[in-house]
Every structure is written in structure tokens, then in C-alpha cells.
Amino acid sequence: MNAGTLNWWHVIALLGAVQGVIVAMALVTKRPRRTQNLLLAGALLCFALHLASVAYYSAGWVARWPHWFGVTYSAPLLFGPLIYLYAATASDRQRRLAPTDLLHGLPFTVAMVAGIPIYRLSAEAKIALHAAIQRGEVPWVALVTDQAKLVSGICYAVATLLLLRRHRRVIAENYSSLERVNLMWLQWLALSGAAIWLLAVGLTVAEGVGAWSPLQGDQLIALSMTVMIYGIGYMGLRQPEIFRFATAEHAIPAPVPATEVAARLLPTPRYERSGLAPRDADELKARLVALMEREHPYRQPELTLGDLAERLGTTPHRLSEVLNAQLTLSFYDFVNGYRVREVQQRLVGPDGARYTYLALALEAGFASKSTFNAAFKKLTGVTPSDYRRASGA
Question: What are the pLDDT digits (tens) for 301-328?
Fold first, then answer.
């Protein structure tokens, strides 16, 4: 292949770079301007620079534009930090960037400073260095940076997935409907990034034993990153609400895992888990149960922990303590337990023959058919149709 000639995978890498820039610009210009969007835009620009550099090196453009040599080499050290900070701010509207967040960029800064002698080389020296690298004579700076990229990528991928896992617990403690706040697409993004980093580690090991060539590895990484970038663009077009970041507003303690709740919405009290006095906890629980059975607030699809606490004249934290300690339920399971129980009662009554499952579910407070089916199966162990069939209705 002649220097400067593009093949199919160079084109794919460049298309991924162009798409990354386009989506990044869309995020930067989106109003209102949010920190989350700017962080994701920064990550996409880093992805784009990396993909463009892959085509730049493998297509033989170093001799034509030698002063681009090494400029973007440290960019992957920003992939993990930017996605992590994006996940942190997207899952918590009150999260703001702090001066300490600059520490996430320290490895990138160190690598850039260490590479200054290379950046200052003449055009001829850069071309010669590139030729030496192709022969296997890699500078120590590049060797250390390569290992740092892999370590950084894996560590931040794990940190991001753990953060999102905690986020799922938090929203289950605050929201009765999760469609608008579950950030499942962000989970997809984090898993995709983790998969790419694992692929990079695997390819590095394979290259070390001679089972895979660096060129083939670059092709797979470029293809994977391009697919991820186009996936982000597609999700943004298909579900623009994902950039609204309607997430939990009330921080609470780590939740107690939910128990089997099909037949026991009100299990034995467990005072030792609560900071409330036993008498206060009993009184609040009694008022909570009375409110749910008398006024049916669970029929509001967007009911939140804060809403229910306000109606009870207490704080979200105290209400959460009662749910976790005495009922061993998350707010999500507690509210949806009442919704499911109402649908159960109506399915075996006259309404069961007159209305569809979805109509009954929506009237009970469920926001979608999929959420209803999942909650019903979780809390009863059977599907709505199996339940009605077994009841003889």
C-alpha cells in the first residue's frame, strides 16, 4: 500500500471521528448548557482524535504531516476520567465539578509533559522516530504511556460501573417509576467502554506472544470505537430525553435488599436498622400504611419519596428509614407492591373481564406495560394472565 492510501478500515475510523465531532458539537451547542453534556462532548472529541490518529499512522501520513506525530498519543488517558465524571454528574443533578476533579487528568498531564521532547523534534527527526517505532524501537515514554492507558481504562470502567450500580439503588429508594431516571443507556455506554478496554488488554497480550499483529488490533479497536460513537449518536436521536438527567434528588443511606414481598408488604419490624425511636417508627409506619390505603397516592405514576414524605409531614430520610428498616423494602418495591395488589384484586373481579391488563395497570399507577409486567412477575411469581387463569376468573 502506498503512503497516504486509505483502505476500508481507515475510512471507518475517519467516519467515526467525523461522527464524534458532530455529536460533540451538538452537545456543546445544546441549551441549556449542562456540565454533563460538556463532559460527554469532551470524551467524544477525544475518541475522534484517537480514531483520526489511527488512520494517520496506519495510512502512512506521518511523512506528509510529521508535526502531527505524537500529538494525540496521550488522549486515551482522558477516556476513562471523562466518562466517569459524565456518569457521576448525569446520575446526580446536584453533583458539580470540584477542583479535586482535576486530579483525574493528572496521568494525561504527566504523559503530555513527558512527551515534550518528542513534540519538539524536527520534522525529519519525527519521521525517523516513527520508522524506528515500526522496527520495534519504542521510546520508554511510549511504553509507559501504553501501560498507563490500559490500567486507567480498566480502573475507570470498573469505577463507572460501580457508580451506576449505586445509582440504580438510589433511584429505587426515591422513585416509583424508573423509565425516565434509570439511565440504562448510560449503563450501555459504560459496558461498551469496558468491553473495548478488555479487548485492548486481550490484544496487547496476544501481540506480546505473537498471536496477533498490532495492525489487526488497531482495526478492531477502531471499528469498536466507531460503533460506540454511532451508538451514542443514535441513542441521542432516538431518545433525546436521555440528556435531561432527571435523577434522584434526595440522598439516602445504602438500601437494605428487598425480600420476597408477594404476600407480606408489612413484615415484622426491625428496629435495630433504624435511627428512629421504636415508637416514632411505629407511628410513622402506621400513618404511611393508612395514607396508602385511604388516599391511594401510589396511583400517581411519578410518585417520589419526597412527594410521599411531604404528604406525611416527615423527611425523605426518615421515611426511607422506615421502609428499609421495618418493611425491608425499597421505595420502588413498596409502591409497586400496592399497585400490583390493586391490579390483582381487580383482575379477579368484574373489572378483569371489562378492562385490559394495561388499562388496569395504568389506573393503578404503572407508567408502562413493561414495568407492570416486570413488577407483577417479581412480586407474585407469575404473569398477569397466569394469575387470572389460576384464580378461575
Answer: 888 888 999 999 998 889 988 998 888 8
Per-residue pLDDT tens over the stretch 122-137: 999 999 999 998 888 9
Measure CA 38 to chain center. Answer: 16
Which amino acid belongs to residue 113? Answer: V
Pull the grid cell for residue 20: 464524534
Indicate the pTM of the whole model: 0.73
Q: What are the distances in angstroms from CA 382 to CA 375, 385, 388, 391?
A: 10, 8, 10, 12
- Domains along the sequence of the chain with CATH: 8-243 (1.20.1070), 271-391 (1.10.10.60)
- Dig out the grid coordinates for 228 from the structure: 460506540
pLDDT surpassing 90 at residue 170: no
